[in-house]
Design goal:
Strand content of chain A: 15-25%
Largest sheet of chain A: 11 strands, mixed
Strand content of chain B: under 5%
Number of helices of chain A: 24
Helix content of chain A: 25-40%
Helix content of chain B: over 70%
Largest sheet of chain B: none
Number of strands of chain A: 30
Distance between the termini of chain A: 60 Å
Order of helices and strands of chain B: HHHHH
Oligomer: heterodimer
Radius of gyration of chain A: 28 Å
Shape of chain B: elongated
Strand order of the largest sheet of chain A: 3-30-4-5-9-10-11-12-20-21-23
Distance between the termini of chain B: 22 Å
Radius of gyration of chain B: 15 Å
Number of domains of chain B: 1
Chain lengths: 826, 117
């Protein structure tokens, strides 16, 4: 033995192995453990799935009541045939885990504020945000409610949970999903709480924007004063084409909310100028989160049977939010898009009818300002006396660091989201409690569970009546010929502008005075015009007796476009509906361009600017992939809004929301002498629209010339629509997709947001259905099934969805593999 | 002869122990060490035979996997790591990492059996 060389060599060897077994810091992130990650028998190589993988399998699961057959088609969509409902949900859980486990883990970590646990202190602020927003709080209440009062749903979620865990239990650690290895952590057991957390996340995604906008609007009002605010952020939308047709007569309201006596001074005209603390800006869901849906009755279709279309607009991510599945049991047979993390089919159809959802966009989240007695935050002032507070403890584990403990004061309104310990520039040092319908216990997935089994309009109404949050427009079409739409959720009965701003939290006259009864929610069935539709616009005209919320929550133009087309169409086929769902007409530009041109002083423009204006005027008003005109229009419009609004909003130390586009368009068309056009910063000059529009064009031209140099004037190159992996790593994403569309367009594809699921269902006897989403059924970036559908999606194409009885499916040429679940080996 | 035997034995044992995913990825360092003790060679030769055993094993395994995967994942990983998206470079890096650890483990083992001549 040569001792010294041995020791030296041993130390170098151990040293190298240690380095290769440690996550190395690269800037803000950490690398994987390189030795582990590169090992062909342990690391990422194990996730490099054979392209010709055979998915046949025989799985033993003694939790099952009976055997279950799953057939996978060539798109890797599972068709589940079970003899017991709970077995079907067990298998759905197993398959969700088999193909999407990491996504399920990651999404619920985000929702429950547990990212710091795996990614370190960098993620602490986002975790604190979600904890203080009450995500875990809301999920706990729903779980308690279902466990106590809803045995059927409890059994369903339990079966689903058991399926997920059955997969995790049998999984070889070397086969763990890629992202766990990249980020160096392992999956944990699934629990029913995680399903409820996932549903809370959907509530946040679709109603949580108020948590940011209520503060921003309050700060904007504080900065401008209420009168100017009401002018720039008006709730009047003259060109509105509401979901329920104009002229519909609404029943007298059963609740008439009473505005508090001093509301004008204590609330509307309030203004707070407090010191701003130095913390990051809040997280907020995308403003464009919304969707389209519609149904046309047999009177307008070629076949005489209704056709339904639904496309939810959400962040475009991989793995996709959606996972296609068919579930067939003796009680029902359904197909559609499901959420990995939850049982049942969420948007889809069964053998009697089809349904879809769009976001209602109603305000169901309010802030109340709290006055604490002292820094201990143990008592707060309410209705003339001090009340004690209960503190809710939330512990955030932080990787490589100490736990962070949040003590959240719970008030009569709800959790105090912002207090001395948690602030951001928008909350301006105030103590703010949050009241949110998502904090009330819900029935979770029961609405979808019942829709999956619904046979007719009455079943549909019963199913959606259970739905509380996030409020949705549920559209329906049945084989028997009915079409209908209803905006359903727990909506607050508000007096005008109640909840638009932060309200006084010491006064019960500002409380919510009731939830609008289901029967009074806007709805229509089999209308004369032969179609129902929604695209996130206001549900009704102003004659509806309840306040809907600020106009900025309700985009105007997609709804106008959808209704315009549907009105004009007849002899409609499924292909016509595909064409409409991917339509790129720009109804907004059709109004805004002539409004702009009214004021463009062509003779004052530079040659380049003139060239750009020509490009814009020659444009066919369609947001096609290769169009330059739309790019020019967008940048010119942005530039003009900046010129008009910029001075009013300048000088604010925190970011303020710009007024909505429809406000400017309306004024450009109506009032050529609008005083707001004047730039208040130029004391010696008085600008008008002609000045600002011309200025806007010149400023835009600078940007446009730069784009032209980089060859990025074409709309799809400029927009660069992309589907990002949840970690935002470009190598795992699909970038620069060749697709047109945009904001305000039926084909609502913007940069990282758009139609996350597209579905068309023709209610013939066999059901002719088409659909796809921008992703793939496998969440494994190493699988050939990871991003399979993206090219078709970008091209506006669809797949025919297979919805067949077991005997027929087995013989179908597209059926490829069979997974058999057996309850025992007997 | 010893060289070839070491080569095959080390590669075989590394592969065999790698099947048990409960054991850490660096278990082959232990098996390389044991093989080097069992088959004494001069230190340099020990290092080379141990390095070659794992280097070739990892190269073959990753190439076979990569081929059946049509380079899908290796290309992505070679972009996440600064390897300019080349799956070939990634396979080489994989091989080198295994070879270094294996070689050093074998070298360490060889010093146990060798003595100053």
């Amino acid at each position: 033995m040569r001792l010294l060389p041995f020791i030296a060599s041993a130390m170098v060897t151990i040293g190298l192995v240690t380095v290769l077994n440690t996550q190395l810091s690269i800037g803000p992130t950490k690398s994987p453990k390189l030795g582990y990650f590169l090992s062909p028998q342990h690391g990422f190589w194990k996730n490099a799935e054979k392209v010709n993988t055979n998915f046949d399998a025989s799985i033993l699961a003694n939790e099952l009541k009976g055997n279950v057959d799953v057939y996978l088609d060539d798109r890797l969509v599972p068709h589940i045939y079970a003899d017991h409902d709970q077995d079907a949900y067990f298998v759905q859980g197993y398959l969700h885990a088999k193909f999407r486990l990491w996504q399920m883990d990651f999404q619920t970590r985000v929702a429950s504020g547990r990212l710091s646990e795996i990614a370190g202190a960098d993620k602490l602020s986002i975790d604190r945000f979600f904890r203080r927003l009450g995500m875990v709080y809301g999920a706990e209440k729903t779980e308690a409610n279902i466990n106590a009062n809803n045995p059927e749903m409890k059994e369903t979620v339990d079966a689903y949970t058991a399926g997920v865990n059955a997969f995790i239990k049998q999984m070889d650690p070397a086969d763990m999903p890629f992202e766990f290895k990249l980020m160096n952590y392992a999956p944990e057991k699934w629990t029913p709480a995680k399903t409820y957390l996932f549903l809370m996340f959907m509530s946040y995604d679709l109603t949580g924007r108020s948590a940011a906008s209520d503060l921003q609007l309050t700060n904007t009002r504080d900065f401008l004063g209420y009168d100017l605010f009401d002018k720039l952020y008006t709730n009047k939308q003259d060109s509105l084409d509401p979901i329920i047709p104009k002229g519909t007569v609404y029943q007298k309201p059963s609740i008439v909310p009473i505005k508090p006596a001093a509301a004008d001074s204590a609330y509307l005209h309030q203004s707070t100028a407090l010191a701003i603390t130095n913390v990051e800006t809040p997280v907020a869901p995308n403003k464009n989160n919304g969707s389209n849906n519609w149904a046309v009755s047999g009177s307008k279709t070629k076949s005489g049977r209704p056709i339904l279309a639904s496309d939810p607009h959400l962040g475009l991510n991989m793995p996709s939010l959606w996972y296609e599945v068919q579930i067939t049991t003796p009680t029902h047979s359904t197909y559609g898009a499901s959420f990995p993390g939850s049982p049942a089919v969420i948007i889809g159809f069964n053998d009697s009818l089809a349904w879809g959802v769009t976001n209602a966009g109603r305000d169901v989240l309010d802030f109340y300002e709290i006055k604490f007695k002292d820094s201990s935050e143990n008592e707060y002032w309410y209705n003339g006396k001090w009340n004690t507070v209960e503190k809710r403890t939330e512990v955030i584990k932080v990787k490589d660091s100490a736990d962070v403990v949040e003590q959240i004061p719970m008030t009569i309104w709800g959790p105090t989201m912002y207090d001395a310990h948690y602030q951001n520039p928008q909350s301006k040092g105030r103590n703010l409690a949050i009241q949110w319908t998502a904090h009330n216990s819900s029935t979770g997935v029961e609405t979808f569970y019942r829709l999956n089994r619904a046979k007719n309009y009455d079943d549909y109404i019963k199913a959606i009546s259970l739905w509380t949050c996030p409020g949705q427009n549920f559209v329906l079409a049945t084989k028997s010929g009915d079409i209908a739409i209803k905006q359903q959720g727990s909506f607050v009965a508000r007096w005008e502008r109640q909840g638009d701003f932060i309200m006084p939290g010491d006064d019960s006259t500002y409380a919510w005075q009731g939830i609008i009864p289901n029967e009074e929610n806007p709805t229509i069935k089999n209308p004369e015009r032969g179609f129902v539709s929604s695209a996130n616009q206001k549900p009704t005209d102003p004659s509806y007796p309840y306040y809907l919320g600020t106009a900025s929550s309700f985009p105007l133009y997609r709804g106008i476009s959808v209704n315009k087309h549907l009105t004009a169409m007849s002899g409609i086929t499924a292909e016509d509906m595909q064409a409409l769902q991917t339509n790129n007409d720009n109804v907004f530009a059709a109004t805004a361009r002539p409004a702009l041109m009214k004021y463009v002083q062509v003779d004052k423009l530079s040659p380049d600017a003139k060239r750009m204006v020509d490009e814009m005027t020659n444009w066919d008003l369609v947001n096609s992939e290769h169009s330059k005109g739309i790019t020019v229009f967008e940048i010119i419009w942005d530039s003009v809004t900046e010129a008009v609004w910029g001075d009013e909003l300048a000088g604010s130390p925190i970011a303020l929301t710009k007024p909505d586009d429809f406000v400017l368009v309306d004024q450009l068309l109506k009032d050529s002498n609008w005083s707001v056009a004047d730039d208040i910063r130029t004391k010696d000059k008085k600008e008008n629209f002609k000045d600002q529009v011309t200025l806007g064009v010149e400023n835009a031209t600078k940007k446009l010339l730069a784009l032209e140099k980089e060859n990025k004037l074409e709309w799809s190159l400029f927009k660069a629509t992309r589907v990002m992996h949840l970690t935002k790593i470009p190598a795992l994403s699909r970038m620069n997709l060749p697709i047109g569309g945009g904001k305000n367009i039926i084909n609502a594809s913007t940069e990282m947001h758009g139609p996350s699921w597209r579905m068309i269902v023709h209610l013939t006897d066999e059901i002719e259905a088409y659909g796809l989403y921008p992703g793939g059924q496998s969440g494994n970036p190493g699988s050939v099934y990871y991003d399979t559908f993206i090219n078709y999606w970008a091209a506006g194409k669809y797949y025919r969805l297979l919805f067949l009885a077991k005997e027929k499916l087995i013989q179908n040429e597209r059926t490829k593999w069979h997974i058999q679940f057996k309850k025992s080996n007997a | 002869m010893k060289f070839i035997t070491t080569l095959f034995l080390a590669a075989l044992m590394a592969y065999a122990i790698g099947i048990y995913s409960a054991l850490p990825w660096w278990s082959f360092a232990v098996t390389n060490l044991i093989v080097a003790i069992a088959i004494p060679q001069k230190p340099l030769i020990s290092f080379v035979s141990g390095a070659l055993a794992i280097g070739l094993l990892w190269a073959c395994l990753s190439m076979i996997i990569d081929q059946s995967n049509h380079h899908i994942l290796a290309t992505k990983v070679a972009t996440i790591l600064p390897l300019k998206g080349s799956y070939i470079v990634l396979i080489i890096v994989t091989s080198i990492v295994g070879a270094l650890v294996g070689g050093l483990a074998s070298l360490t083992g060889s010093f146990i059996r060798s003595s100053k001549a």
